[in-house]
Amino acid sequence: MIRAIITTNGFYSFTIFTYHQLQWSAGLWGGYPQIGFNAGDQVNYFTLEKSFSPDVVEVVNDSNIGVPGQFVFHTTGNISDVECNSVEGLQSMPFRGSMYGGYEFRLSGICFNQSDYTVEIDGQQIVNCQIAPSYISCMMPMTYGGRLKIRLYSERRPIGETDFLAIEPEHNAHLILHNYHELDDSVQQTDNDQFVLQFQSNAITNNYLFHVVVYYYGAQMWLNNGTIHNRTHSRIDLGLGPRNLSLLQNLTIRYESIFSIIDQPVDRTHLLTIAFEVVRPSSRIVWAAVPLILLRIIVVAAVTFESYCPLWHAFEPNPQIYINQIPPCPCRVLTTWSENQLGFTADGACDGRYPLGKNCMFHQGASGCYRRKSNTGNAGAQCCYNSQGAWISNWENGAGTLDAYSPDGSLLSLGHIFSDVIPYFSCCKSILSPSKERCKQYMNKRPPGRCENLLPLPAGGNGDPHFTTLNGGSYTFNGYGEYTLIKSTVAQFEVQVRLAPVNANSP
């Protein structure tokens, strides 16, 4: 088997060649093959030593990176040698990255032959960019999540634009916090004045120092038309310096250290992402460029928390418009709880691959949930299942709730926060007005949708060979011998296959 992968880190290109279980040395023409790579320009090429010899099959034991059978080549051209002759085709490298910024990005693809350029991202001007003949280098600022426009101007004239996908990195504060599940994506009230982080003592908190910062987003939404307005964002350094969190044990963060409580409109929502930037203690401390560990908390005024539910319910349309958009849930899934099943992706807040414990807190009774966004709108399905893999339709038993605005993987969706998350907490987690009827208001507007007995994705094998599993997974396996392809655990059913090399002269 020979496999080639072309990849990039956003700035440089690499080609990875993997050689495994080579079964031939001489070709049909009687000669021995050449192994390596060729750029096609008669200048840049590389040939492995055992090429053109019977020993070529032993390349599976060789490497230039210490991994038998694997070779990696840096295949990026010298950017200074590229002739600049284009005025169209502006592009960004990388084309996606963290919405919290703090890293370099480059604009290229056109000629930069002026001295006066202005770069804007999502309407905000970027300063201190470096201009070279074939690219412009800037630092990515803090942005809102989603697909953003990068626009380039020269002397106030638009030169070009390109898209950039700003993503919210995965929340992973469970690695260091005891009370992660009580805080992450929870809705807190400003009347509480503060929240407390309780740190674990483990290999991470003991062996690393952390710099703690808060990425703040504030916004409001008009419930009558769903318009989000008065958006602001900022990065707040808590001034703690590098700290050992296991020795710190607890950290109390007051809201007033991040935003003003007194002067804010009562309907304003505050999104706080607490980022723990990690460094390894050494004689020279180097800050990590991107936050490693993240936790997000949603903060609203107490009056908003209590009054949001009835107001939201009054303006919410008939949920049938969302049900018509979202895909039907599978009526049954495999209880192996894989990352993907039948086109649906595991829900991080109720992932069946992890012990229940505090997992599935918002869908108690469920063993796992899956999500999938509509192909025609913003809505999304959330499908929850019991321990036997059967779809749950009753919210009191842990059923899923459709989303008017799907969280869409790692993208931060303010629409999801205002339309799905805050209403849930206001309706179902109210302290002053706790009642099943109040929570039912939310569930009536966010029903679980419907389920269908979806057919498994086509499964089988082909080629040398490539396999597709019943739950949509795919892989390549080149072992010789007889193997079990599929076997039932509830019936007398088993399919075995025999894998063997095919003669090149076979029909």
UniProtKB/TrEMBL annotation:
Signal peptide: none
Compartments (UniProt record): Membrane
Residue ranges occupied by any VWFD domain in the UniProt entry: 457-507
Occurrences of domain AMOP (ranges): 301-446
Keywords: Membrane, Transmembrane, Transmembrane helix
Residue spans crossing the bilayer: none
BP term (GO), one: cell-matrix adhesion
One cellular component (GO) term of this entry: membrane
Domain of life where this protein originates: Eukaryota
NIDO domain residues: 1-78
Pfam families: AMOP (PF03782), NIDO (PF06119), TIG (PF01833)
Name of this chain's protein: Uncharacterized protein
